[in-house]
Amino acid sequence: MDEAGDLKVHVNGHHTLLLHQSVVCTFSGRLRAMVAQEKKRMKTASRGGGGAEVLMAIELAGFPGGADGFELVVRFCYDSGRLPPLRPTDIPLVHCAASFLDMTEEVRAGNLLVQAEAFVDDGLGHWTWADLLTAVKSCDSLFSSCLLDKLLSALFSRIAVGAETLTRSSSSTCSSSSPDTAGGRPSSAARTPESMKPSCLVGGREWWFDDVASLSPASVEKAMRVIGCYGAENKNLTLTRFLLHYLRRAATLRKADDQGCLSGLADTAVHGVELGGGAAAFSCRGLFWALRVASAAGMSRECRRKLERLVGKMLDQATLDDLLVSGDGGGVYDVSLVIRLVRVFVSSVKEEKEATSPSPLSSSSRERMRKVGRLLDKYLAEISPDHGLGVSRFLAVAESLPDSARDCYDGVYRALDIYLESHAALTVEERGTLCRCVNYGKLTLEACKDLAKNRRIPPGITVQALSSQRLPKLPNPMSPSRTPRQVVVDEEKAALRVDLQKMKGRVVELETACKEMMGHVKVSRTAANKSLGGRGLPWMC
User: Fold this and answer.
1) How much is the pTM?
2) What is the mean pLDDT of residues 464-470?
3) Which position has the higher pLDDT, 396 or 452?
4) Which pLDDT band, with edges at 50, 70 and 90, does 161 fall under?
5) How far apart are CA 127 and CA 120, in angstroms?
6) What pLDDT was estimated at residue 198?
7) Residue 185: phi, psi to the nearest 5?
8) How does DSSP classify residue 455?
């Protein structure tokens, strides 16, 4: 071999190597074709202009791994086709470089590509968990998909074997170590997802969640496809919990080109929640958490409806904190979501009633409705100060439950009072419209007395509310069965009846005075028109 090389190779425009054509072209089909093309070009140029012989130079743009990857290839070529000492983490780089340079069996028997694949097949079962995880990450940066399937299958096979081994080794003591310490080496064949039993959960997470969550969305999506659990095929509860854990982390770090993968993974997680047990496997709070995570990742409308249906059916188990979901519109809170969930709940209760018998709701169903009613009253009071909450949205929440869901409307009235206080610019008509959500007949005496003194309530509504109060005739004051408390209540009701009569009389007087004033205004305007020759006075208000 000549001492001086006869081929100058520029790698990605940053590194230059002087090589021998006879060596590298023996193994690389791509370099062989590029050299042949360059020789043809140089031959044509020499015929036209002549001149001294120029050293041949070719450009390798977009070479995977840059100079480090090309150096591994060159060492293979100059060592007569023998693999240099490699670490498992080098294999993705070597495999990708061999594919790029067309170092296949058609070019030369026992070429780099087939040797790299054999290295993986023979040694994959002996790699450590850290080596396997790093190799998968390397495929992300190298965009190597052909090797990624094998590595992902081995990764999840290791997870399945590790879960089984840890479960067998101790049912009471959990280990957070990798499966490398659990004994045995798994094969590279992928295990079925059913073998991935929930084991050693710490805060709802398996030992491998954080490690696998460091992979890119494309790799996680590929993994779900490889093990047959992508989309509607996902019925595995452990994988579903992992996806929710992954999406929560990925949503804060996502890039623009990750959105498609994240949306698909969110849908996969929703299918897993639905098919993996739903309400039996997740608490109401857990379903709300899944809804928040999947929404942030961009799940489809169909999956949103499925998940909201699961959540809505368990709404009687929710807390106020569960309902306070941040809004993405004009308001602070996602009021539309709560309205949809209440509708699902009411519909599910009606379906249960129809399925059992046409008789009225059972005592358990009525109690569930009352719990949701009390919850909505708290929710209304919490969202009422929001200046982005319109009148129609407030009414939609307040009226989303049937009247039978509330034995008392004091909570609705308190929320209404907070809303009126926070929205002082409302017109009389708007305030009157808002008051329609209150059943005055179900107000306590204390609430009704407060309403009567509330200046934010229109007078007509106050009269209507007081008229709706059931004020029975006072019993015989000498009745021996009356307690001191009943005496006080009866006296308050009597005073309330007197106030009502006074208020009705005052309203009639105001209406009469208003009619008289309107008559005087019309007479004055007619007289003024005549005095001004038919020209009317300008409107002052």
Assistant:
1) 0.76
2) 75
3) 396
4) confident
5) 9
6) 41
7) -120, 125
8) T
CA angle 446, 447, 452 (to 5 degrees): 100
Cα–Cα distances in angstroms (integers) from residue 326 to residues 201, 330, 335, in the given order: 30, 11, 9
CA dist., res. 243 & res. 237, Å (int): 10
Q: What are 394-445's pLDDT values in tens digits?
A: 999 999 999 999 999 999 999 999 999 999 999 999 999 999 999 999 999 8
Residue whose structure tokens are 């009846």: 497
Residues 6+ apart with CB under 8 A from 380: 394, 397, 398, 411, 412, 415, 416, 419
Q: Measure CA 167 to chain center.
A: 32
Reported residue count of the chain is 541
Q: Collapse the DSSP code of 7 into the 3-class scheme (helix H, G, I; strand E, B; otherwise coil) and give the result.
A: strand
What distance in Å separates the CA atoms of residue 247 and residue 535, rounded to the nearest whole number? 73
Give the residue with greater pLDDT, 278 vs 497: 278
In a 13 Å sphere around the CA of 320, the CA atoms on its Cβ side amount to 10
Residues 287 and 310 sit within 8 Å (Cβ to Cβ): yes
C-beta neighbour count of 315 within 10 angstroms: 24
Cβ atoms of 253 and 247 closer than 8 Å = no
E strand or H helix at 16, and its extent?
A: strand 15-19
Count Cβ atoms below 10 Å from residue 352 Cβ, excluding itself.
15
Structure tokens at 387: 């200046």
Predicted local confidence at residue 176, as pLDDT: 44
DSSP element (H, E) containing 46: helix 29-49
Place of tokens 């305007």: 525
User: How far apart are alpha carbons 152 and 158 in whole angstroms?
Assistant: 10
| More confident position, 470 or 282 | 282
* Secondary structure element (H or E) that encloses residue 135, with its range: helix 129-142
Provide the total of helices (H) and of strands (E) in the chain, helices listed first. 22, 3
Q: Tell me, what DSSP letter sits at residue 326?
A: B
Instruction: Note whether 462 and 431 are within 8 A (CB).
Output: no
Phi first, then psi, for residue 198 (nearest 5°) are -65, 120
73, pLDDT greater than 60: yes
User: Do 270 and 299 contact (CB within 8 A), yes or no?
Assistant: yes
Separation of alpha carbons 85 and 325, rounded Å:
55
The tokens for 452 are 């009567």
Alpha-carbon 321 to chain mean position: 17
Beta strands in 37-160 (DSSP E): 56-60
CA–centroid distance for 395 within its chain: 27
Q: Please report the pLDDT score of residue 421 as a whole number.
A: 95
Read off the pLDDT of each residue in 15-25 and give the average, rounded to a whole number. 92
Look up residue 94 and give its two tokens.
């070597």
What is the full DSSP assignment across 158-203? HHHHHHHHHHHH-SS----S-GGGSSS---SSPPPGGG----S-BT
- C-alpha pair distances (Å), 477 with each of 77, 194, 247, 491: 114, 76, 70, 10
